[in-house]
Amino acid sequence: MSGKPGYHGRILEIDLTSGKSRTVAVPPEDLDKFVGGQGLGMKLLWDRLKKPGVDALSPENPLMFIPGPFSGLPVPSSSRTCVVTKSPITAPLKSDHRHASTVTYSNMGGFFGPEIRFAGYDGLVVTGKARELSYIVIDNDKVTIRDARKFKGMRTDAFDKAFLEELGDRNYKTVYIGPAGENLVPYSSIIHTAGRAAGRGGSGCVMGSKNLKAIAVKGSGQPGVADHERFLAALEKARRALYGTTYAKSWAEQGTARAIVGNSNAGTESVRNYREGTFTEADKIGGDAARRDVWVRDFACYCCPLACKKSGVTKGKYGGVVHDGPEYETGVMLGSNLMISDMPGLLRAIYNIDDLGLDQISTGNVIGFLMEAYEKGMIDRKFLDGIDLTWGSVDATLAMIEKIAAKEGVGALAAQGVANLSRHIGQGSEKFAIHVKGLELAAHNIQGNQPRALSYVTASRGACHMSGDDIAMQNRRAMLDSTGMCFFPTFEPALEEPMLELLSAITGHEYDKAEFEKAGERIFNLEKMFNYREGFRRGDDKLPDRFFEDAFTIGAKKGAVLDRKKFQDMLTTYYQDRGWDPTTTKPGEAKLKELGLEFV
Amino acid sequence: MTRDNEQTRQHQTTFTRREFLKGVGVGGGALVLFGQFGIHSAAWALSGEPTLKMVVVDYNKCTGCRTCEAACSSRNRPAAVAGKALPGLGNPYFANIKVHNFNPDVDVPNVCAMCADTPCAKACPVEPDAKTGRRAFYRDDVTHTMHNDANRCIGCGSCAKACAAQRTGVIRPNPETGKPERMCTLCGGDPQCAKRCPFGALSYVEVRRDRKFYGLGPEKIAAELARNWYGTATLGGVK
Ligand code: SF4
Ligand code: SF4
Ligand code: SF4
Ligand code: SF4
Fold first, then answer.
1. A335–chain B nearest CA distance, Å
2. Domain ranges, ordered by start, for chain B
3. Going by CA atoms, what residue is nearest to atom 7 of ligand 4?
C-alpha cells in the first residue's frame, strides 16, 4: 500500500530499447492533484517531455495506459483506460519547434484498465523502441518482452484470437495494433477485445513507432480504499441509481446508435462531409434498423449496468462478419458522412477499419473529403488509383480503407489526414478539409451548433466532440476521464451524489461538485500549457471555412451557418473566463497559481 | 435491498423452460446435447419436484459485465477492517463465479454445477472419514455445495483435474497450497451474484435433488451460443 489510499502508488515503466522494466513510485501529491487517467497521464507526459518539439514517433515519447481511482473496484461503469501520449497528428500553424504537436488522449472501455490495477499498477508507461516487432506480457510483478514478428501484418480480429492462443490463458486482457499502426498511419487506433478502441489521436501510430504489437496484462491484486464502510454504502447507492432504470434500459436498447436518427432529425449530424446536418436515409442505418436486422445481443464493459454495446452479423455480399455496431460515431462517419445507407456495407466498413486498426472517425472524415474533392473535379480517378469514389459507394470506400492502412498509392497521401491532403490538392479544398489543428472532426456537425464548435476548437487534442461545450463541462469531463468511469452513465442525475461519495471514500480526498470541477480545470490547464509550450496560439483554435459559408440546405436546421464575429466573440469570452490571455491563449499566472500549477 | 429481492423473485417466476432453452441457444438439439455432454442449467429445465436451489444462467441476458464476480468476491472474501468483518472490495480474482469472454462476442458465466455424481469428490484420494464418510473434497448433503477439508487435503489437485476434464472446470487450486478453491457457497442461501446482476441473467431457482445432469465447460457452451447467434463456432483463444 502506498501513502495515498485508492492507489497502488506506482506505475510500471517498460523501456523497449533496453528491454528492461521497473516500477516507479508516483508522488502522492501527483495522485491527489491529477487523479489518474487523462490527468495523471498529462502530468507524467509533462514530467517526461521536458522540452517542446519532441517527435511523437521518437523513442522518447512515452505511450501510457492510465486507469483511474475507480478502476479495479466494482464501481458501475468503471471500465475506462486513458491512453495518453504526444500526438503524431496535430500541428500548429507555426512554431519554432519542428515536431510541435498537442498532447493526445483516447479513452477506451472494456477490461484493460481494471486489469492494470489488478496487476498492481496505477498505469503503464512504455518508452523506447524495440529492435523487432514485440509484445509485452505482464503477470502481476512478472514482466516479459517477447518477439512478435510472426504476427507482423496481422489484422486485429485474427490477432485477438491468435494472441490468446499463444498466451495460453484467456485471463489475459490485451491491447494491440493492426497493420495500420505497424505502417505508421498517423490516425491508427489501439484495439481491445477486437471491437473496442482507443481510436482518436494516433495512439496506435505511436505504439507502432515503438515496434510494439501488443500488451497482455493479468493480475490478482486490488488497490485499497480510504474508508471501507463508506465505500460500500456509496456503492450500494450508485448501483441503485442505475440498476433497472429507464435510463439504463434505453442504453441497453440502442446504445449510442439511437442518435443516428435523432441527430439527423435535429440537424446536428455530420452528413456529406459536413455539408449538411441531416441525412434523409438515416433510418436505414439507425438504431431501430440495427435492432431489427443486425443486433443479436447487448454487451457491457467492466461492471457496467448500461450495456451500450451490440454485436450482430449480416448476410449477403458484405456480410459474414460478427462485430459491434453501428454506434453513433462509426455509423455516422462511415454512413451519413459518406452517404452510405446500405447497412451490411456500413458494418463491413466499420469492421474492416477496426480490423486494420484505424480510427473510425478520421478514416470516415478523410474519405468524405476525398469524395467531395472527386465530385468537384479537383482530383480525378487516376489520382485515386482508379477508385470511383462517389458518394454512397461501399466498394469504393472499402477499397480506400485498405489503401490507407497499407499506405499504398493514394493511401499514402490519404493516411496523412485531411489537413495534409488539402495542402497537396490545393484549389481551395482547405475550405472543406474538416479538421482542427490537424485532427479531423467527429460525427457532430456544427453549422447550427455553436457550443459544439467551441468544444472542437478548444479541445486539447485537436477537434474533439467530447471535450465539452462550455468551461464547466470541459472541466468536468477532463476530471471524469481521469477517474476511470465511463461518460455515459453520468448523464443520470441520480448518480452524481454517489459518484462523488465513492471518489471521496476511495481516495480520502473530499469531492463535491466544485472540487471535482476544480481538479478537471487543473488538468485542462496543464494540457493547455503543454500545447502552448509547443507553439499553439489563438490562431490554431480555428475552423475550416465551410462552417461559416455553407449553410445547410435541408433539415430542421436548414439555413444554419456559423457567424464569424459571433464565433470570435465567443472565443474571446471563453479565454477571458478561463483566465487565459485572449490574444495568445496563455493561462495567466494567477490562474496557474490558483490551480497549483506553479511548476509549469 | 427490497428492489433487489423483488428483482430476483421476478426472474425466478418468469424464467420458463422455453426461455431457458432459448437461453442456452440450442433449441431442438438441446436434449441431444445434454445427453452427450450435459449442461448444468439443464438441471432446472428438466426438473420436476423442486427441493434444491441453485444458480442458473440465462445466456441471452448476460452481457459479460462481470458484476457477478465482484459481488461474489465481496461476500465470499470478506475484509477485516479495524477488527470488523465487512464485505470485501470485490476483487474478481477470488470470485467463485467466473465470466469467460470470447471472440466473437459471447460471455459465459461459469459456476459450480453442483453435479449430482460429484466426479470431483470421487477423484479425491483421501480416505473417507469413518464418521462422516467424507473425503477431503466433499458435498454438503443439505445444500449440495462442494467443500474442502483443508486439514486433511494433501493439495494433489485431483478434484480440480476431474472437474476440468469432465465438467465446468471451476475449481482453482490455491497457487501455494494446491488446495481447491472457487466452489460456489450459494452465499448461505442469498446468492450475491444473482442479486447484483444488473441484467437479470442469473437466477436462484429450485431444481430436483435427484436430477441427472452434467456440467459443461464454458468453451463448449460458448461455441454453442456462437453457432446459434452468429452462425460460427470458431472461438478465439480456444484450442
Ligand atoms: S453480472 Fe449478470 S450480466 Fe454481468 S456477467 Fe454476470 S451474469 Fe452476466
Ligand atoms: S462443477 Fe466441478 S466442482 Fe462442481 S460439482 Fe461438478 S465436478 Fe464438482
Ligand atoms: S486437492 Fe485436496 S481435496 Fe482435491 S483431490 Fe487432492 S486431496 Fe482431495
Ligand atoms: S451463489 Fe454466491 S458463492 Fe455462488 S457464485 Fe453466486 S455469489 Fe458466488
1. 23
2. 2-114+184-230
3. B72
